[in-house]
Structures are given as C-alpha cells and as structure tokens.
Design a protein that fits this description.
Structural class: alpha+beta
Shape: globular
Strand order of the largest sheet: 3-4-5-8-7
Domain EamA: 114-241, 250-390
Radius of gyration: 24 Å
Number of domains: 2
Strand content: 5-15%
Membrane topology: Multi-pass membrane protein
Number of helices: 14
Subcellular location: Cell membrane
Main location: membrane
Largest sheet: 5 strands, antiparallel
Distance between the termini: 23 Å
Keywords: Cell membrane, Membrane, Transmembrane, Transmembrane helix
Length: 405
C-alpha cells in the first residue's frame, strides 16, 4: 500500500485522530465498508481502516492498519484500547468510539450539520450586535464600551486562559487571531458612530467576498458555486446599502471591519483544524488579547480627552447592565465559540456565506428597535442575500452527500 494508490480518498469527517510515523491524521473518517482507505491530503501516508465488532467491543470500532513502521500513537483526545498486534511491518491498534471532550461539545450532531446549525445561530446573534452597540454608543465612548464588553467575555473563559498561556503554539495563534478581532471590532465601532445600524450590518457582508479571495490566493480551490453565491450576496448588499441614503465614511469603516473579520475567519479555519484539542484555550486566550488591546485603546481615548476617566465612567453607567452583559456574553463570547467550533467542520467560504444572512437579522432588529427603514430596492437586495445564503448551504449539503456515497 502506498500514498499513490487510487483507492485512497478523503471521506466525510468524524472525531477520530491518530498519529502514524509522526504524521498527524486529523478527523479520520468513519469507514463505510471493510477495507476502505483514507489518505491525509498533503501528507505522505495512507492508512487502511476496517470496522470491527466483537464481545470486547460491543459497538463498532475502527481498526487502523499503518504501514512502514510498528508505531501507532493515538491522539490524546481519543480514548484508545491498547490491544496491539504486530506482524512485520504491519501494526494494528483498535480504537474505540470517541467520548465527549466535555465543555460545550454537541456530540448529538455529526459532520457538517452541527457546523451549519451553529453558524446560523451565530448569524442571528451577530445580527443583534449592531443594534445593541448603536444604542449603547449614544451614551458611551466606543473604545470604553469595547473594553468593558470584551473584558466581560474574557472572564467567562478565565480557566481556559490560564491553560492557554502555558502552550506556546496557543499563545502565538491566539495573539494573531485576537489582534485581527481587535482591529475588526475597532473599525466596526468607529463606523457605527457615523452610520446606521442597518448599514453597518449590511456592509459587513463583504466578508463573503474576502474569505473566498484569501482562500483562492492561498492556492486552495474554491467551488464555482461559492463564488457565484458570494457575488450575488454582494449585489444584494449593494442594493440594500444604497436604497435609502448615500454611502458615507461610516460605511467605509464597516466595510474595512468586514475585511478584517474575513481575515480572522480565514486564519481561524486553518488554526482550529490544526489545534482541535485546544479550541477552548485558543478561544479564551484570543478573547484575553482582544480585551487587553481594547483596554489599552480605551485608556488612550479616556485619558486623552478633556473629560477624563470620571466622565467616561459616568457615561458607561448610562448603558443598561443587561445590554453590557448581552454584548459581552451572547454576542461576543458565545459567537466566538460558535465560530471556532463550526470551522472544524465547515469551510471558511461557506461560513462566510452563511454569515451573509446576518445583515437581514441586523436590519430586522434595527427596523424593530431603532426605526431604520428601507424601500423596494432594499427588499430586492435582502432577497438576493437570503437566496445566496440558502443556495450555498444547499450546495454544501449536496457535496457532502455525494462524498458519503
């Protein structure tokens, strides 16, 4: 058996992982038939898997046969049964079904279904964000509001922050991702100070174009359907944005925030897949970086103004506590966890397209609570965004079904 065998193919993901000949095979698929082969793309190795079931393993398990050296070490996130059988160059290790990794895992869902559900929930939560921020910024400086918001979110994951600091790779990746988030949220806050909440939500959909572009520039293939859906979604955004007023500087800042958020999403996909057993630590530590950066920015804003700290705290007290808690916990901590978890199973371009429905939720909340309105042209744009989002998810599901069969 070699890596060039035609039987080697990439099949749907499952939570199994293993390391063979020091080559990591992440998200090894559950075999659908005896003797199926799995080839880890980009890695010089091929493994054979067969399903087994006996008295010792009452439930179906996976038998992984690795060639070349008598070495199979199971990733520490997978419970292994160390019953080994060595014959020449062939080593067999029986791996039982994985247990829950704890925390916020959703083991009841499998494959991309879980990721798609989470991303749609995240889109709704993100949709509420601009309305809440816009209302709060009427009485509080943006940087100070961000510092409180992100500090509150970081506190929710304090235990994992301590664990993440001990891991060099987690520290490095979390610092990068946290700074991308800080830049994105800062641009968003500046933009919302001079544009409407609905415009802020709508222009944020430019993420759906940025992510496929970054993926394409990295050398990976992007399905044509993804590009078409991205263009349609952006056309819808254009119609919505220009349906009532002329675009202004605030719109430009919100578009910049979309570029920065898209870069974060693109980088998060590769980082989370490479650090699947450290997702919570990665998420918590980048929240800490985000909170720290926001506090530094707030310091410059507060102490650099004539009003000073006392006036800044006075304005902060005018923001309702439920709004602060919601921004910190629901629309920040929870949505970031959703993104980290879902990108293990859903590609970044598809995730960006699903998030293209966020402006509709955002505009809906702005319509209900802030009085924002749009005309017929805006409704046409809204329809195009919904159509693009649904089409992308349908195409992804069909591709997954064809792969399974």
């Amino acid at each position: 058996m070699s890596s060039s065998m035609s039987l080697c193919r990439h099949t749907p993901c499952s939570p199994y992982s293993c390391t063979i000949n020091s080559i990591p095979f992440h998200r090894v698929p559950t075999p659908t038939k005896s003797g199926e082969f799995f080839f880890s793309a980009g890695q010089p190795g091929c493994i054979q898997m067969t399903t087994i079931s006996n008295t010792k393993f009452p439930r179906p398990s996976i038998s992984i046969n690795a060639l070349k050296q008598n070495e199979v070490s199971v990733d520490r996130t997978v419970p292994a049964v160390q019953t080994e059988e060595t014959t020449g160059d062939l080593h067999t290790s029986d791996i039982s079904e994985p247990k829950s990794t704890g925390g916020l895992s959703m083991g009841a869902f499998q494959g991309s279904t879980k990721g798609l559900i989470l991303l749609n929930i995240g889109a709704i939560l993100f949709g509420t964000n601009n309305t809440v921020i816009k209302a709060a910024e009427d009485s509080c400086p943006p940087a100070l509001l961000s510092a409180v918001r992100f500090s509150m979110a970081a506190v929710c994951f304090a235990p994992w922050i301590v664990e993440g600091v001990k891991n060099k790779e987690v520290r490095k990746s979390a610092t990068e991702l946290g700074l991308w988030l800080f830049a994105g949220y800062l641009a968003q806050a500046v933009g919302l100070s001079s544009t409407t909440a609905s415009h802020g939500a709508l222009t944020g959909t430019f993420t759906v174009l940025i992510v496929p572009m970054l993926v394409g520039f990295s050398g990976r293939s992007v399905p044509t359907s993804t590009w078409v859906a991205a263009v349609v979604a952006l056309l819808g955004v254009g119609l919505l944005t220009t349906s009532d007023t002329t675009p202004n500087a605030g719109d430009a800042w919100c578009i910049l925030s979309a570029v920065l958020f898209g870069t974060h999403k693109f980088r998060s996909e590769s980082v989370t897949k490479a650090m699947e057993d450290s997702t919570q630590q990665l998420m918590a530590l980048q929240l800490a970086v985000l909170a720290g950066s926001s506090c530094i920015a707030a310091g410059f804003e507060v102490f650099g103004s004539s009003e000073g700290l006392q006036q800044g705290l006075a304005t902060l007290q005018e923001v309702p506590l439920p709004s602060l808690v919601y921004m910190g916990v629901a629309s920040t901590a929870l949505t970031l966890w959703i993104e980290m978890e879902s990108l293990k199973e859903v590609s970044a371009p598809i995730a960006a397209l699903i998030y293209s429905s966020e402006p509709l939720y955002g505009a809906g909340f702005a319509y209900a609570f802030l009085g924002d309105r749009w005309g017929p042209q805006g409704w046409v744009g809204a329809f195009l965004i919904v159509a693009a989002c649904l089409a992308s998810q349908l195409a992804e599901s069909l591709r997954a079904s064809r792969t399974e069969t």
